[in-house]
Amino acid sequence: MPATSTKQMQIALAALLLFPIVSYSQVKPQIRTGFDAMYHIEQLPLLFPNGTSTRQPLAYDPTGQNWDHHFMAAFTQYVDSIKMEDGTMVKEYVIYDEYGPGVLYRQQMNAWYDRSKIPNGWLAWGEADQPRANANIRYYFDDEKEPRINMHLKDFFSTKKFPFTEPLAFVDSGYLFANLYYPFTYKKRLKVTMRPNAKSFEQMDTKWYQYTALSFPADYKLESWTGQSAGANPVIDQWRNTGENPNNLEDSKKITSQTKIKKAVPQQFFNQSTRIPCRVYPATDPL
């Protein structure tokens, strides 16, 4: 057998065995959500329950004219009017309103860049204290009257306010955009709004956002986010140690063997009925 073919076969076997071998008649895959799903990356090949869909509300121009940054036409889904105790009415601009059960995984925000006074319409940096980004972002769970999160926009996406910190949070050096990978689970509904602290917030058109979520079938069991999650710690540790094996190898065993595989002759080189992570290293010389 040519050396090239032998090595190709060995490499192919190695690729196949990089993933856990599972006896599907004995093991039912567990579908995880939230931080648990982010940590257990081995579930990536698994399919979610039938009826699960990816949702991505975002700022976009429905006319196709590239006015994705327009505050009312693209950024805002609709406007809520909130009656205060003193009788005054306050506007909240809704950017996300999805029914559960679901998980909001990714939040990208562009709100700190003002091109209104720039002749060519572009400047490659923003400002955290941009007057036209002066608003609070509010997260309402399950039709509650009061939001469980009520923070200034610049604080929520600053990467400095726990638990929305690095490495789960990122803001670029030019303060043009920010990303947050902190999952919010919601059982019934999640609504995200912007409440302006100044009139200038409603006058600034240069705002974009993208939110990515999973929406599950109605009978999927999921509880709403109640506050800081201890499940974040394993994910944070994993992300801060990329390149290292995340598996616990305390009780693992290393088995070394050599097998010659002849052309057109079936050869069993491994037999394992229970779940076990395996790695096959190709020989440096042809067999």
Structural account:
By secondary structure, this protein is of the alpha+beta class. The protein has a single domain, classed as Jelly Rolls, CATH 2.60.120. About 15% of the residues lie in helices and about 25% in strands. It has helices at about 5-15, 35-40, 70-75, 155, 200-205, 230-240; strands spanning about 55, 80-85, 90-100, 100-110, 135-140, 150, 160, 165, 170, 180, 185, 190-195, 210-215. The strands form 3 sheets. Strands 1, 4, 9, 10, 11 and 13 form a 6-stranded antiparallel β-sheet that branches. The protein is elongated. The relative contact order is 0.23. The model is unreliable at about 10-25 (pLDDT under 50).
Question: What is the molecular shape?
Answer: elongated
Remind me, CATH topology?
Answer: Jelly Rolls
> Strand content of the residues, in percent?
15-25%
The tally of structural domains comes to: 1
**Radius of gyration, rounded?**
25 Å
Share of helix, binned: 10-25%
How many strands, what sense, and barrel or not for the largest sheet? 6 strands, antiparallel
CATH level-1 class: Mainly Beta
Q: Which ranges are low-confidence, i.e. pLDDT below 50, for 5 or more consecutive residues?
A: 11-25
**Secondary-structure arrangement, i.e. CATH architecture:** Sandwich
